[in-house]
Design a protein that fits this description.
Helix 3 (115-134) runs antiparallel to helix 5 (195-211). It contains 14 helices and 34 strands. The protein folds into 6 domains: 13-96, 2-Layer Sandwich (Phosphorylase Kinase, domain 1), CATH 3.30.200.20; 101-322, Transferase(Phosphotransferase), domain 1; 383-451, Trypsin Inhibitor V, Chain A, CATH 3.30.10; 456-526, Trypsin Inhibitor V, Chain A, CATH 3.30.10.20; 538-590, Trypsin Inhibitor V, Chain A, CATH 3.30.10; 595-658, Trypsin Inhibitor V, Chain A. Strand 1 and strand 2 form a beta hairpin. Strands 1, 2, 3, 4, 5, 6 and 15 form a 7-stranded antiparallel sheet that branches. The protein has a 3-stranded antiparallel sheet with strand order 7-9-10. Strands 18-21-19 form a 3-stranded mixed sheet, with helices on one face. The chain starts with 12 loop residues before the first strand and ends with a strand. It is 27% helix and 25% strand. By secondary structure, it is an alpha+beta fold. Keywords: ATP-binding, Kinase, Membrane, Nucleotide-binding, Serine/threonine-protein kinase, Transferase, Transmembrane, Transmembrane helix.
């Protein structure tokens, strides 16, 4: 277990309610602690955003989104979120505390799971996910790190930080959200996610549970993304022959590249899994449906989760834990059920397809034996028959010289061509013609396509476009949207792009060359102008700024001839630079007009005294006869007396006598 004694959060009281006890996990965005809710006297998991992210509105919004998404769900297979708030500059979430491990821990310890264990975990995950889909929520970040296996046997989905409401298809400015190993083809190519994208991620997880490996690997994220977009996930039984073919078909259905060919949501896949379970489990166990047990974590087994977004620092050993259940079915364009189908009829289709695959395998094996027998010892087969052919090797990322040498060793000739590639470095082989694995006769020529690096593109001007239009302009050229920032700007309408920059160097993006496929472009969006609250009451000013997500604090008071006593003279941000939602404004309020010293007009004629007083803004109380032409009056006294400070606009009473 990692040493947490130096963690300044240990022992701290958050928001006057949550007493931090110990640290249990730390990730790139937040740290998770065990805390005591002093109000309800219960243990909770307290997720606190890292301090250096406190000013990043994108991360703050993700915290709030996680709380709102989870709050809409009440399901035994979804982690409960109890509270969300901010203490000083710390944003936090309060969640259900579940002692135990993650599915990633389980896979690290055991390598792969049995078919029965896989179906049990899949059933639980699909049950929780079906509730989310029914509530109109797409998770968008399903992976083993977000499946929690509690010590008491419960299985729950957590981390709804990337979740979004479903509107048929949910588009995102950040095309590659979530973990690259589980991204659906439509997220990779179009940045579009809906319930079927969650199904794809769950299909990849099922493959990983059954085989202990992910179907796609690569040295760079873009290589893995390319495989998601262009390759077909292999059947798990090609890695582990004992895996039932019904589960092969389930994985193929869930991971179809075309979303229309997958289950339309988790409920459809769950219903199919429950039907398959009745067929697969008796065949696999030979003794009906027995509970699947996840055995205790061994003392010598690794507890780290180095590849996870959140690393487990001290997971408790898992006693014999009953793994509960939940999950789905398969698909291709011709024989698999459609996204709307479910039920026993589909199970018959899947089972029948699996049996046909097995019969076809037997037939091919018999044919190979027959050909071998007819070969008469194999001379013809290896001299001029099929045995004289060799498969084209995989030469991706090799230098042209090394690739040429490998081909020569196989008796093949090499030719060269060039192509652009966003995944292979310039100067290395990016693809071959014929493709790797193709069998060709010795002496044939293989064309080595050498990478010239990413395809150059010309981006249009993005300033002034809507976020959707800017995203389309970037992704249509096979670049991607990186981060987005939202700031207030009086000169740019709300929702429009203020500026754009390269993610790599922060330079401004303007039309022209120097841009390449796969490049990330960061956007700054306008929130419109900060409301003008001058002349409003403090309550009205606070409400107007609050509607824009801005906070207020009391400032000083100043005299004002134009703003009434107690109303706001001005509102200014407390820090320099761009203004974002969540920033604080200082309100300066009015003390009314500045006081004026009453001048000494005693002994002056009424006309002269009247002008002096009215020029200073005073109102006068006197005998109206004094204004009669020919009436000569001398000022005898004033109330207030000369030298007194009186508010501008106040009334001065005068006494006078005939001159």
């Amino acid at each position: 277990m990692s040493d947490t004694s130096a963690d300044p959060m240990i022992g701290r009281l958050i928001d006057g309610r949550y007493q931090v006890r110990s640290r249990i996990a730390r990730g790139g965005m937040a740290t998770v602690y065990v805390a005591t809710d002093l109000r309800l006297e219960r243990r909770v998991a307290l997720k606190i955003m890292h301090g250096h992210l406190a000013d990043d509105n994108t991360f703050k919004a993700r915290f709030v989104q996680e709380a709102r998404s989870a709050a809409r769900l009440a399901h035994p297979n979804v982690v409960n979120v109890y509270d969300q708030g901010q203490d000083a500059d710390m944003a936090y979430l309060v969640m259900e505390y579940l002692p135990g491990i993650t599915l990633r821990d389980l896979l690290k310890d055991y390598g792969r799971l049995t078919s029965e264990q896989t179906m049990d975990i899949l059933e639980a995950v699909l049950s929780g996910l079906a509730a989310a889909h029914k509530a109109g929520i797409v998770h968008r970040d399903l992976k083993p790190e977000n499946v929690l296996l509690a010590d008491d046997g419960r299985i729950k989905i957590g981390d709804f930080g990337l979740a979004r409401a479903v509107n048929n298809n949910t588009a995102t400015g950040q095309a590659l959200l979530g973990t690259i190993a589980y991204l659906s083809p439509e997220l990779v190519t179009r940045g579009i996610a809906d319930a079927r994208s969650d199904i794809y991620a769950l299909g990849i997880m099922t493959y990983e549970m059954l085989t202990g490996e992910q179907p796609y690997v690569g040295e760079a994220p873009m290589q893995i993304a390319y495989q998601h977009a262009n390759d077909t996930v292999p059947m798990p039984s090609t890695r582990i022959p004992t895996i039932p073919h019904e589960l092969d078909e389930l994985v193929l259905w869930a991971t179809a590249r075309d979303p229309e060919q997958r289950p339309r949501d988790a409920r459809v896949m769950l219903d199919q899994l429950l039907d398959l379970d009745k067929l697969v489990r008796p065949a696999a166990t030979g003794s009906g449906q027995a509970e699947t047990m996840v055995m205790p974590r061994g003392a010598g087994m690794a507890a780290g989760v180095a590849d996870a977004d959140t690393q487990i620092l001290g997971a408790a050993p898992l006693a014999a834990t009953t793994v509960l259940a939940a999950a789905g079915a398969p698909h291709n364009a011709s024989a698999f059920p459609s996204a709307g189908d479910s039920g026993p009829a589909n199970t018959v289709v899947l089972t029948d397809k699996a049996r046909k695959r097995k019969r076809k395998g037997y037939w091919l094996f018999t044919l190979v034996l027959l050909l071998a027998a007819l070969a008469g010892g194999g001379g013809w087969y290896f001299g001029s028959g099929p045995g004289s052919q060799v498969p084209v090797p995989s030469l991706t990322s090799a230098s042209p010289e090394d690739a040429t040498s490998q081909l020569a060793e196989l008796g093949l000739e090499a030719a060269r061509d060039v192509e652009y590639s966003g995944t292979i470095a310039a100067g290395l082989v990016s693809s071959t013609d014929p493709e790797p694995g193709t069998r060709i006769a010795k002496g044939s020529t293989v064309t080595l396509r050498v990478s010239q690096g990413p395809q150059p593109i010309t981006l249009p001007a993005l300033a002034g476009l809507t976020q959707e239009a800017a995203t389309a302009a970037v992704t249509d050229l096979k670049a991607a949207i990186g981060s987005t920032d939202s700031v207030f700007d009086a000169d740019v309408d709300a929702g429009l792009v203020i500026s754009a920059s390269r993610e790599s160097d922060g330079g401004d993006v303007s039309p022209g060359g120097g841009y390449f496929e796969g490049m990330n472009v960061n956007l700054v969006l306008s929130l419109g102008a900060v409301p003008d609250v001058s002349g409003k009451s403090v309550d009205d000013a606070t409400a107007a700024l609050g509607d824009k997500g801005l906070l207020v604090t009391a400032g000083g008071e100043e005299f004002s001839d134009s703003v009434a006593d107690g109303d706001v003279i001005s509102a200014r941000p407390t820090k320099d630079g761009p203004v974002r939602a969540g920033d604080t404004f200082t309100l300066t309020t009015s003390k009314g007009p500045a006081p004026v010293e009453v001048p000494n007009v005693v002994g002056k004629s009424w006309g002269e005294g009247k002008k002096i007083l009215t020029d200073l803004g005073f109102k006068l109380k006197y005998n109206a006869l004094w204004d009669t032409p020919g009436f000569a009056i001398v000022v005898q006294s004033t109330d207030p007396a000369a030298g007194t400070l009186a508010p501008k606009g106040s009334t001065i009473s005068l006494a006078g006598s005939l001159a």
